[in-house]
Write a sequence for this structure.
RNA sequence: GCCGGGGUGGCGAAAUUGGCAGACGCGAUGGACUCAAAAUCCAUUGGACCUUGGUCCGUGCGGGUUCAAGUCCCGCCCCCGGCACCA
């Protein structure tokens, strides 16, 4: 018997499958189709454990479906535009395209080593002009339908670099590269009107998605019913507020505007100007997340201005506070401190009046100044003029009598109207960057914008560019210069698109990546669409998955699927409802998290340049005191050559120049900046966090089959967890054992009928369990069931008392059930047994329920809920017999003696509980 | 802060959804084989107590419902993911 040589076997079969085109998927209307899709990776450089964890179970699932008789499409590609490529360009002087394509080459190679059944003929790469031509085309269609429009949004603005920074480039309100402050600034940009689809996105009809994902999307969309009410400043300007509780308008005692609200300037009185301006500057330095984070301590300032409450002509002071966000609602709120906890706390802190307008059922109205919390329950309206005495409930919107009455009153009085507000904001797709799909728009001399003509698509990114921080598109005259539809000079749009745009339609491009007449070939689409199973990380629960749903709905409404529908009808397939949602079944895996690690303690010398320290030398010294150098502390984060060091005085940004000396005593030879270890929390693996685990070494050591098996065995797939490489030997032993079992050349001794039928029963039980678990994405218990079968077969092999045909059935079933998880070794052993065709073309094993059934069961007998005996009983035992059997037990008698049996609960055949007392 | 998920042996985890807590593995301990080591095989392995057999305790913490709670309810603590320019 030859030893198991994983390296030779895996190489051989990967080459053979490729040569045979085993995984090529072609349209075949005679067979049922299955489109399996797993989220495409960003080409960050190396494939890490997280990719394997996400992809190999998806591959295994696709393989099971194939063995079940489906024609399976399982493609792969790269989401290739994005920020890391530009970081590399800015700081290492590598062109983003070069960096990206080199990474893709490496990752393609690594992906092949997984032994997955990807159909590489269908690969799509989003940064190729043949791909982004259609991303641009979709933008144009969106523009034509009024979905793409220009509007204003806040950006992280670096005044020193005169550029926009991504959220992850801002640490502690400062640019991570140069330590300079970052401010929030309004800028004109492109949006998609996803809010037009808000209501449709709240419905999940016809799709099987996890409840948690649906809940998160619902919360993200955040539909709320209420009213828009118009207040007027004393100067006569309108302030529109949205409120879900218009019925409490009579209790509104002040207003709060977002600090960026356009009316702040005009409403602020001269004596308050200085305070207000200072507050606005401070607010601009904080991100929305930071503003929402610390809500215990309210901050805000009075503008000195007043507005008039339209329901009672009361004069109310107007404040600004950063807990009111310009991007939510109208950026202004009316404050009813008596019945809203946040307003209540604000009022208490700044000593503003509180007027209760709801009397709780059968109680006196809350009295001032004794109130301790806002009253948010039901009751009856008081102090509220025309709606006095009307009941108020916990219902939302018009379903609440008091709200319905108020809306009617407001509409009649012309002071407001019923309104629905969404937390969901329109999708900001502009990025002030180079490495993204260009937005195919022209700015005409007359100030209008117009789209680039279809025949001029794609607008191609210029290759000859320099990177300093700002997008090179802004200064590239050759790129900028264009001619509009009337032959007049025009300038190109320099914003590029959010990469979520590229990943919102990629599974259509997989259908026909070389197709030139449209984004996808209708002949392919008619057969394969929609995606049957989509798998990917739960971190995409809201944004990517919501954008993808929006995109398909918009495509449907733009008529993009008309040809596809025609082809479907020609083949007798009914297209209705097939283009409302992109993914029929969605399952999320958890994440493989990186292990925790402390960062190196650095001693940095050099010189200060503004907020930044430019390093001339860096030494790693775990014992260094705080005075050992210019900057001393733990390395928290590193992006290329920009370091964040945690010193006693706070975070310090350090830039490592080319000539700087790096000294890491633990690593011999010349050290460089990439060898510095930065702090790692237990958190998701990603290249930018530097906590990835590379599977290549493990593949070299144990083989891809073992790595695949281990990833599926060691975690609950939907949950994930921190990576720990120790347990892999268990999976390795399992794979080795399968090799030994299948190559043992079983020779029976004295055959036992009982032992034979027991093994046969175990084999069929394994089929039931493995099949159910795999269909349900429970990979760890599927592998455990296969290991149990392995144990049974080892015992049988040793006893040599199994009839030969039972042994053969056991061996072949084990190989087939394992084939989706460990495709190479099972293929090798299948052929070694004498079969000439691939195991991956074999039909999936089917269990015989009669063979799988157990005749006897261990029945547990409890006394007062505690297990006191176990009795072997017939599996079909009646409740009466079960009870009698339990009461007849001697062990039970010892516990019931001297006590009255009050009750017997029989749940045959598993359990009987006797209650005594 | 808001939304979602989670917390079970020394470790990764199971538990047919209210019915034997710890399947399947890792690690550890003892033994076999070996000159020896590795590999392999056998046994034990949640904790405490006593006599072999058993008793009591045990699923983040505190309460509750139930014949029966890891599972359901109420209140708390901690960890992870997302929060709109990382993808």
């Amino acid at each position: 018997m030859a030893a198991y040589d994983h390296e030779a076997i895996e190489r051989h079969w990967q080459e053979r499958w490729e040569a045979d085109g085993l995984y090529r998927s072609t349209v075949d209307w005679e067979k049922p189709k299955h489109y399996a899709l797993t989220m495409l990776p960003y080409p960050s450089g190396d494939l890490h454990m997280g990719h394997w964890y996400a992809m190999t179970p998806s591959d295994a699932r696709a393989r099971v479906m194939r063995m079940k008789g489906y024609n399976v499409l399982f493609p792969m590609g790269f989401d290739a535009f994005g920020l890391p490529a530009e970081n590399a360009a800015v700081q290492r002087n590598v062109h983003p395209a070069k960096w990206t394509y080199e990474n893709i080459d490496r990752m393609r190679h690594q992906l092949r080593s997984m032994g997955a059944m990807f159909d590489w003929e269908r690969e799509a790469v989003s940064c190729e002009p043949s791909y982004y031509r259609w991303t641009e085309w979709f933008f144009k269609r969106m523009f034509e339908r009024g979905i793409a429009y220009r509007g204003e949004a806040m950006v992280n603005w670096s005044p020193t670099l005169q550029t926009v920074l991504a959220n992850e480039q801002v640490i502690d309100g400062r640019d991570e590269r140069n330590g300079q402050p970052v401010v929030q600034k309004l800028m004109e940009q492109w949006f998609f009107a996803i809010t037009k689809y808000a209501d449709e996105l709240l419905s999940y009809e016809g799709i099987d998605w996890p409840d948690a994902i649906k809940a998160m999307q619902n919360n993200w969309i955040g539909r709320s019913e209420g009213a828009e009410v118009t207040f007027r400043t004393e100067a006569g300007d309108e302030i529109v507020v949205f409120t879900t509780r218009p019925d409490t308008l009579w209790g509104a005692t002040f207003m709060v505007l977002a600090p960026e609200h356009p009316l702040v300037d005009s409403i602020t009185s001269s004596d308050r100007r200085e305070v207000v301006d200072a507050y606005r500057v401070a607010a601009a330095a904080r991100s929305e997340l930071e503003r929402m984070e610390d809500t215990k301590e309210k901050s805000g300032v009075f503008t000195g201005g007043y507005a008039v409450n339209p329901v009672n002509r009361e004069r109310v002071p107007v404040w600004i506070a950063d807990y009111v966000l310009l991007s939510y609602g109208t950026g202004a709120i009316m404050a009813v401190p008596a019945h809203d906890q946040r307003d209540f706390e604000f009022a208490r802190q700044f000593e503003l009046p509180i007027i209760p307008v709801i009397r709780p059922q059968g109680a006196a109205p809350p009295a001032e100044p004794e109130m301790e919390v806002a009253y948010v329950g039901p009751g009856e309206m008081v102090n509220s003029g025309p709606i006095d005495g009307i009941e108020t409930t916990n219902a939302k919107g018009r379903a609440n009598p008091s709200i319905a009455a108020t809306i009617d009153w407001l509409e009649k009085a012309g002071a407001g109207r019923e309104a629905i507000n969404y937390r969901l904001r329109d999708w900001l797709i502009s990025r002030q960057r180079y490495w993204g799909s260009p937005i195919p728009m022209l700015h005409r001399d007359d100030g209008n914008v117009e789209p680039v003509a279809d025949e001029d698509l794609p607008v191609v990114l210029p290759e000859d560019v320099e990177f300093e921080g700002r997008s090179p598109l802004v200064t590239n005259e050759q790129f900028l210069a264009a001619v509009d539809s009337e032959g007049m000079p025009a300038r190109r749009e320099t914003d590029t698109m959010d990469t979520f745009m590229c990943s919102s339609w990629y599974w259509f491009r997989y259908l026909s990546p070389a197709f030139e007449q449209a984004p996808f070939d209708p002949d392919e689409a008619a057969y394969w669409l929609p995606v049957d199973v989509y798998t990917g990380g739960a971190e995409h629960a809201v944004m990517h998955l919501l954008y993808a749903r929006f995109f398909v709905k918009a495509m449907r409404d733009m008529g993009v699927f008309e040809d596809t529908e025609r082809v479907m009808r020609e083949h007798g397939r009914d297209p209705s409802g097939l283009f409302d949602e992109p993914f029929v079944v969605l399952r999320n895996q958890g994440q493989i998290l990186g292990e925790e690690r402390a960062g190196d303690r650095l001693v940095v010398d050099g010189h200060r340049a503004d907020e930044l320290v430019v390093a001339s030398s860096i030494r790693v010294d775990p014992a260094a005191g705080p005075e050992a150098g210019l900057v001393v502390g733990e390395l928290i984060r590193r992006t290329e050559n920009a370091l964040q060091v945690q010193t006693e005085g706070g975070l310090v940004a350090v830039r490592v120049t080319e000539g700087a000396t790096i000294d890491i005593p633990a690593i011999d030879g010349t050290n460089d900046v990439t060898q510095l270890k930065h702090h790692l929390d237990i958190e998701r693996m990603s290249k930018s966090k530097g906590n990835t685990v590379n599977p290549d070494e493990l593949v070299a050591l144990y083989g891809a089959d073992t790595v695949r098996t281990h990833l599926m065995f060691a975690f609950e797939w939907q949950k994930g967890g921190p990576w720990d490489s120790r347990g892999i030997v268990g999976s390795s032993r399992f794979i080795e054992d399968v090799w030994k079992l299948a190559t043992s050349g079983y020779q029976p001794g004295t055959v036992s009928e009982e032992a034979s039928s027991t093994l046969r029963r175990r084999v069929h039980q394994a089929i039931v369990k493995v099949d159910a678990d795999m269909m349900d994405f429970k990979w760890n218990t599927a592998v455990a069931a296969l290991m149990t079968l392995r144990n049974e077969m080892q015992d049988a092999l040793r006893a040599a008392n199994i009839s030969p045909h039972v042994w053969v059935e056991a061996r072949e079933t084990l190989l087939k059930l394992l084939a989706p998880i460990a495709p190479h070794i099972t293929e090798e052993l299948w052929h070694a047994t004498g079969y000439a065709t691939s195991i991956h073309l074999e039909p999936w094993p089917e269990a015989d329920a009669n063979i799988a059934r157990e005749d006897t069961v261990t029945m547990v007998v409890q006394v007062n809920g505690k297990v006191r005996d176990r009795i072997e009983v017939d599996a079909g035992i009646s409740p009466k017999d079960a009870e009698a059997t339990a009461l007849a037990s001697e062990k039970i008698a010892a516990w019931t003696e001297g006590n009255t049996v009050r009750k017997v609960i029989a749940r045959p055949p598993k359990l009987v509980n006797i209650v005594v007392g």
Notes: The longest helix of chain A spans residues 753-775. The first strand of chain A starts at residue 33 and ends at 38. Chain A has 28 helices and 39 strands.
